[in-house]
Design a protein that fits this description.
alpha/beta, eleven-stranded mixed sheet, globular, 15 helices, 513 residues
């Protein structure tokens, strides 16, 4: 799937590159991180490695340029909950430079600055989950994904903002701040991984990690005009990821190119004995399957069977988004794909089934935050009052609402009517995707029904916000991989708003052609 589509054509149209006269975005257009000429196609990670090994730039120079960029843009975008101490980050970069001077081997991610969503544990900085109940909490360990990145030389620059415990689609449900979209500071970056998407979009880091339970990597990737990848369930270890809905949660990747997300996915993938759900399948080298654009023939995707999901381009989708998706589909045909519409009759059932299942699992998973075992504790002389006050003060309104919905769905009188039936719908969805992917190599759809909307526009209308997840939740229910990349623009803001194309593949087919 990653090798099917090369780097998006629209990435050069970022407003942070000075394509707008808006004063706020003009601030974002200054102090671009240092880059170097490279023979590598569109990959910042490979360009950085080439620059370091050729001594064209040092890791300290590259790191300092990104830190300066972050210092200038962070007050406007509010991407990070916690930023690593600059001296500590520069020290790690200096150690990489010293290794290179001694002609020692450095990891493939040496000098690459990575931002990590704040529901993924890091041992050397706070991990709050975007919630007051974990404010100041420092885990004694790194998540497996973070540990693997560090072992390959990556530098964690900070922890990004998110909707509390991943419950939301705008990053407005964070207990600490509201993140803005780098394309238009009055709009949301999407969620729940809005901070990680905005950090890559604003060039505050090279790549970032997010989590995806029902679209939390793919929707913000679309809103922020970056590449977002949700891997197959089990491809990446969930150890160290704060559980929201355990049967749906995955750690995903953000980058400014398909190549970078593929390299990042390869780095964090693989079996982990600390996660019983992680797959023992061999992890292919995704980067080895990328082809230089200059070496491609005129119809490089000749014969690739592409199914456009009919139910995703109906009247509920904005006209501008439809036009962008149809334009992307036409371009795929020009590249040699065989395009046809496919119907998934169960598609509309995914949204209610997802919210029943996710809320039910969250009501169980979040019971651990009681003020005794984890997080902040309210003062009380009586145990039940301690539980009640700690959770009442620690959780935000969105989290409380989903816990209540989940507890209700799991209660004795309603279990069969809600939770059991939602699981049955999940099986139907899995079968419908399998049938469609047996006849097609990939499926495509919009990533969201609209482009980024205004901050506060849907905050008081949860049903409208939930409806925005219709394009993505089915993929999580089926456990499939999906890639989102920019495919066009719609009117809005000073320079237009990006639209993302979602590409869905069969399970563990991230690297197939």
């Amino acid at each position: 799937m990653l090798s099917t589509i090369q780097s998006p054509r629209c990435l050069s149209r970022f407003p942070i590159r000075g394509r707008t006269k808006s004063r706020s975005l003009h601030i974002l257009s200054s102090a671009q991180p240092l880059t170097a000429p490279s023979s590598t196609d569109h990959s910042q990670i490979l360009s950085i490695r080439e620059s370091l090994l050729s001594r064209h730039l040092s890791a300290v120079q590259l790191t300092d340029s990104y830190l300066e960029r972050l210092r200038q843009t962070e007050p406007q975008i509010k991407t990070f909950i916690h930023v690593s101490e600059p001296d500590k980050v520069l020290k790690q970069a200096q150690e990489i430079d010293e290794k290179i001077k001694r002609n020692e081997e450095v990891g493939p991610l040496a000098g690459v600055l990575v931002a990590v969503k704040d529901n993924i544990c890091t041992a050397d900085m706070p991990s709050t989950g975007g919630s007051h109940i974990l404010e100041g909490y420092r885990p004694p360990f790194d998540a497996t994904a973070v540990k693997r990145l560090k072992e390959l030389g990556a530098i964690v620059v900070g922890k990004t903002n998110l909707d509390e415990f991943g419950m939301g689609s705008t990053t407005e449900a964070s207990a600490f701040k509201v993140t803005a979209n780098p394309w238009d500071l009055s709009r949301v970056p999407g969620g729940s991984s809005g901070g990680s998407a905005a950090a890559v979009s604003a060039r505050q880091c090279v790549v970032s990690l997010g989590s995806d339970t029902g679209g939390s990597v793919r929707q913000p990737a679309s809103f922020c005009g970056v590449v977002g990848l949700k891997p197959t369930y089990g491809r990446v270890s969930r150890f160290g990821l704060m559980a929201y809905a355990s049967s749906l949660d995955v750690i995903g990747c953000f980058g400014s190119s398909v190549a970078d997300t593929g390299i990042l996915l390869h780095a964090i993938s693989g079996h982990d004995t600390l996660d019983a759900t992680s797959s023992k399948r061999e992890v292919p080298d995704f980067s080895s399957q990328f082809t230089s654009a200059s070496s491609l023939k005129s119809r490089p995707l000749e014969g690739l069977r592409v199914g456009l999901i009919r139910e995703t381009i109906d009247g509920a989708v904005d006209s501008g988004v439809k036009s962008a998706i149809h334009g992307a589909a036409a371009h795929l045909e020009q590249l040699g794909c065989i395009l046809k519409e496919v119907s998934l009759p169960s598609f509309s059932l995914g949204l209610p089934a997802y919210y029943i299942l996710a809320s039910s699992e969250s009501s169980s998973n979040l019971s651990r935050y009681d003020g005794v075992r984890y997080g902040n504790q309210a003062s009380s002389d009586e145990l039940n009052a301690l539980y009640k006050d700690s959770r009442a003060k620690g959780f935000g309104p969105e989290v409380k609402m989903r816990i209540l919905m989940g507890t209700y769905a799991l209660s004795a009188g309603y279990y069969d009517a809600y939770y059991k039936r939602a699981q049955q719908v999940r099986t139907i969805i899995q079968k419908s995707f399998k049938a469609a992917l047996d006849e097609n190599d990939i499926l495509i759809s919009p990533s969201a029904p609209s482009a980024a909307y205004k901050i506060g526009e849907k905050k008081n209308d949860p049903l409208a916000m939930y409806a925005g997840d219709i394009m993505t939740v089915n993929v999580n229910l089926a456990g499939l991989p999906a890639l989102v990349l920019p495919c066009g623009f719609v009117e809005g803001g000073a320079a237009g708003l990006p639209v993302g194309l979602q590409i869905i593949g069969a399970a563990f087919d991230e690297g197939s052609k």
